[in-house]
Amino acid sequence: MRPWNFSAGPSAMPLQVLEHAAAEMTDWQGSGMSVMEMSHRGKEFMKIRDEAEADLRTLLAIPDDYAVLFMQGGATGENAILPMNLIGRKGSGKADYVVSGSWSDKSAKEARRYGDAAVAATSAGETVIDGVVQPPLTWFPAPEQWQLRSDAAYVHLCSNETIGGVEFVQWPDLAALGAPGVPLVVDASSHILSRPIDFSKAAVVYAGAQKNAGPAGVTLVIIRRDLVGHALPICPSAFDFTNVLANDSMYNTPPTYAIYIAGLVFKWLLGKGGVAAIEQENIRKASALYDYIDASGFYQNRVHPSVRSRMNVPFFLANESLNATFLAQADAAGLLQLKGHKSVGGMRASIYNAMPFDGVQALITFMKEFERRHG
Ligand SMILES: *Cc1c(COP(=O)(O)O)cnc(C)c1O
Hints:
3-stranded antiparallel β-sheet, binds pyridoxal-5'-phosphate, Aspartate Aminotransferase, domain 1, 16 strands, 375 residues, 9 helices, Aspartate Aminotransferase, domain 2, alpha/beta, globular
């Protein structure tokens, strides 16, 4: 059996997808070519690309007035591409950023190169919720507290902070917060396809594929069509949404193999019953792990329960001097890549769609045994 891989990203892929790709590596469906050897404009690849888009649309119930773009540069590239395409939209050059962790902080900093990107709210300090002190970056700023500017070109947030393990899905109606008509832009890199997306609230959703949607190399951008067509003159032509959309994401050579593998992941998800079905599985996995951590006196998760991520579960050992031992023994037990991000410390278990319940159960069994021996 393969070990269980808890990497935050690039992360475990569904085994069926890897085996499927391996089987047609040298000859895709009798074409005599590997997908990576095909012209991106040939009929074979066009079919792969069109099916990938159609399947993604089905999985996320993407409305017709939203375009799907397959781009490159990762979510980090998109942090620059988005302001270059949107911040000039209204002439104010303004955008408001909610900072709830490392990734949204990076997004805000990148946007400042292109305009007046302000921090609308931040969880960088501690707060008190129901009389309990929450440490920095373990909570999400309440929408009523966001400082929004009605003339901003957009508001940006990260809906799943991969490093801190903070997930926020109660996206507000910005009109009710004094910013009517201002589009909400969401970095959903690390939980896209793990649960439904409310497109009545978000105008743009983007995600690097390598957490939950496929391999590194392709970035998914789902954007309301009226927001395309406002790029700054400095925007590289290959990153101008107008060009990308007009050419069905083939303005230049797209990451063909990455799109193909992402397409296989979409088909795998459809076969499992789609996003609603995988969401139930994700709830089951995350609940089992958090319940065990909360019940133990040996492990701790510090994120406020209302915004704990179903995908990324950071946790700490009561005795941090045992960290290296924990990681070495986990590795030997076939539980890989559990080391926490260096900015947080401790451990992190990333349990994306491709992680079955059995993998989470194996982790819990190992944690129990470790606690018994060292607790
Ligand atoms: C991984 C990640 C990124 C960065 O993605 P790259 O593809 O490496 O640029 C950005 N945002 C979030 C939420 C992430 O998890």
